[in-house]
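R.M. (postdoc): so does anyone remember the format we settled on? I'll just put the structure tokens first.
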């Protein structure tokens, strides 16, 4: 089953992608919050219960030399990195497999390297890998193969060495599925891929805990880059013509991030529980594919970011939440007596109950773009989620809650997740306007949470250091109601 760490040999030529996902970590002091203890999954100073760390990610300086035979290797840096990753993932499964999965662990011993730029590269698994910057597991030959010519160099340059380790862990996950009889020929492709993403998450957790003799990863910037790679390898936007990707694709960015986090947070048992019913339940009513309207026209994936669309957004939020004192939009920078303006393109002022908008900046963020434009995916919901999050601050203010600090940031992310889910239902507003979440919008929101974090920030524009935790808080809102967000992040 091929991996979709394939994009990127060409479209990842994007230094802006790495710049966007690099998070400057600062020293946070843990706080004791009165009331019920917060689960470690949502601790602002941790990532899945591990401390947020900065530092190196990739091969350790004292890593043992890689061992094993690789077909057609050039013995270069990329093949050594891939083979070291294979050795590391194998050591992880030697420890993790017994007692957790059915049967016995059988290491993979067949590996191949190729250069996707070379038309003379030998066939692998019955086909030519020429012009196929990819990595894959071939069950017929019990073979893991990778492209040393384009894929691995691009991944290392823009997402760091741990992107190669995560890639190999994903492909090794496909072998683990077969060993443990978790899948068969009737299993939908989406289950293959989601399980493999989850298994990659379990391996990265093992590295993050310091167990690997070869690899290390910081839970701040290092893990952010692995998550960015997972976003970059999402399926293309699903349309009525490609609806088969719902079950035969590899997953949206949200799908892939979710599966990875399931493995990272919970371990192997979470991965074995993934099947088509679990995926369907997890997706719920969230929009995964563009649909056709009553006239047979395809939904639009993006709306322009302008005064009309943002006024419509606020009208929709007023209808959903019916606050006693709805906030109003103002355009341009206005002084706020009780809050210093942040660098975010939208800011809430409690004293005036207004949301001030930098419309040009929001319009730029809301312009559809992806890795080919040197950014992670962005679009209308990149901008609208930020504005919606400032509306959430208004609701929090009306409840008398503190609007700054870690809890406020994660509470806002959670409430923004609730809002995104509620916006999935089609509604015609009193003004006659319509605004509905469509396929791709959640991927735009998740990418924004990782790259700028403004939809997961308090009233000062400050968020928690780890993109992983920001996304976790947002995801919790997708399956919650507002009261649960208020309880989870008091």
């Amino acid at each position: 089953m091929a991996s979709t760490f394939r994009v990127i040999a060409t479209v990842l030529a994007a230094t802006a992608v790495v710049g966007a996902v690099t998070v400057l970590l600062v020293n946070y002091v843990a706080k004791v919050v009165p009331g019920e203890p917060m689960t470690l999954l949502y601790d602002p100073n941790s990532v899945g219960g591990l401390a947020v760390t900065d530092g190196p990610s990739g091969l350790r300086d004292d890593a043992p030399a890689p061992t094993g035979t690789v077909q057609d290797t050039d013995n270069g840096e990329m093949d050594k990195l891939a083979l070291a990753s294979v050795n590391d993932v194998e050591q992880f499964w030697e420890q993790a497999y017994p007692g957790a999965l059915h049967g016995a662990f059988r290491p993979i011993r067949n590996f191949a390297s190729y250069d996707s730029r070379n038309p003379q590269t030998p066939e692998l698994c019955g086909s030519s890998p020429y012009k196929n910057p990819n990595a894959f597991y071939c069950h017929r030959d019990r073979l893991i193969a990778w492209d040393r010519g384009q894929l691995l160099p691009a991944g290392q340059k823009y997402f760091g060495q741990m992107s190669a380790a995560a890639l190999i862990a994903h492909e090794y996950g496909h072998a683990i599925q077969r060993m443990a009889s978790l899948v068969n020929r009737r299993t939908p492709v989406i289950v293959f891929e989601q399980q493999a993403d989850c298994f990659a998450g379990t391996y990265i957790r093992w590295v993050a805990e310091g167990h690997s003799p070869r690899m290390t990863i910081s839970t701040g910037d290092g893990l952010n880059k692995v998550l960015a790679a997972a976003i970059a390898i999402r399926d293309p936007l699903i349309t009525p013509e490609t609806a088969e990707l719902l079950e035969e694709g590899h997953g949206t960015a949200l799908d892939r991030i979710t599966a990875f986090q399931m493995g990272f947070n919970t371990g192997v048992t979470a991965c074995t529980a993934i099947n088509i019913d679990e995926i369907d339940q997890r997706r719920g009513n969230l929009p995964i594919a563009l649909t056709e309207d009553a006239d047979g026209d395809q939904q639009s994936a993006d709306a322009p970011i302008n005064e009309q669309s943002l006024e419509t957004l606020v009208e929709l939020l007023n209808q959903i939440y019916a606050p006693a004192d709805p906030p109003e939009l103002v355009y341009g920078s206005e002084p706020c007596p009780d809050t210093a303006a942040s660098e975010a393109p939208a800011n809430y002022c409690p004293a005036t109950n207004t949301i001030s908008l930098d419309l040009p900046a929001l319009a730029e963020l809301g312009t559809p773009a992806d890795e080919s434009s040197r950014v992670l995916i962005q679009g209308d919901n990149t901008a609208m989620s930020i504005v919606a999050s400032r509306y959430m601050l208004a609701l929090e203010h009306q409840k008398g809650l503190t609007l700054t600090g870690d809890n406020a940031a994660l509470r806002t992310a959670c409430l923004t997740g609730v809002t995104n889910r509620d916006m999935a239902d089609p509604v015609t507003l009193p003004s006659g306007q319509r605004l509905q979440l469509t396929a791709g919008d959640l991927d735009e929101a998740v990418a924004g949470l990782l790259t700028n974090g403004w939809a997961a920030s308090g009233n000062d524009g400050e968020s928690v250091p780890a993109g992983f935790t920001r996304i976790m808080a947002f995801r919790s809102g997708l399956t919650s109601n507002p009261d649960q967000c208020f309880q989870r992040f008091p």
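R.M.: ...and that's the designed sequence above, right after the tokens. Also worth knowing: The chain has a mean pLDDT of 89. Residues 96 and 442 are 33 Å apart (CA to CA).
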